[in-house]
Amino acid sequence: LALGRDLRRAVEQREITLHYQPQLDIAGDRVVGMEALARWSRPGYGPVPPDVFVPLAEELGLMPALTELVVGEALRQCAEWRALGHDLRISVNITASGLLDPGLVEGLSGRLAGLGLPAEAVVLEITESTLMSDPARAREVIEQLRLLGVDVSVDDFGTGYSSLAYLRRLPVTEVKLDRAFVMGMLEDPIGPDAAIVRAASEMARALGLRVVAEGVEDVVLLGTLLRTGCALAQGYGIARPSPAGHALAAALAHE
Ligand code: G
Ligand code: G
Ligand code: MN
Ligand code: NA
Question: Which parts of the sequence belong to the EAL domain (predicted)?
Fold first, then answer.
């Protein structure tokens, strides 16, 4: 397939780039982190969304190289920001195969040392379905990551089948409430999605987990989210994902 051939070339030539989306500490009114999001502009066609090229990379066996590229560049960028005095965390999305790759923990550990980046600055975002693909192994790797000091976040929380009871047994440190619920809350502040946001935040907090609301398209939600127990917010209402320089400017503009 031509698309696959072009993707292979893009990964080999390192033509996959990263955009960054700020994460706001609502109470402190300060950007404290960035989520790295992979971008590919296919020559002659234009942007191909990660929802398309990430699964394709998986299918084509390109995931180890893509993960390498994304993790390497995201950590390098974070180290650069921190060297400039910006105390930011970096969140990186990782698939099931990325999490279960036997070289992950050692690779990360080497990169952190090489960059002089504290492990606490790094958050790996893992979806619920990833956690469920091989729960025993996932748990082992997450334990190793926590020993290293890297944070682990459950992305798109609420869309999968993992219950909070199940989460309790995993040493994850954060959940990201799926944007569908957060956007529903904006539509109807007393409707069912708002109830889900409240209930999930409350339970996550009871488990000692940091809660991030994603899909915050309007800052009017921030007060409600904070009262609900979400410490952090991410979404178009705060800043859109953008190239590193622009994302940093957006983060600083917030101060
Ligand atoms: O950036 P955007 O909102 O288009 O992302 C769409 C989906 O692709 C999201 O679920 C996001 O987590 C995923 N995604 C974006 N970048 C990466 C990446 O570098 N690695 C993985 N595994 N998924 C990514
Ligand atoms: O699944 P994950 O959380 O990694 O997905 C991140 C995706 O969400 C990115 O593709 C990003 O572009 C998108 N996104 C970020 N903020 C918003 C928002 O406020 N609204 C919508 N609709 N999408 C958003
Ligand atoms: Mn994510
Ligand atoms: Na998400």
Answer: 1-255
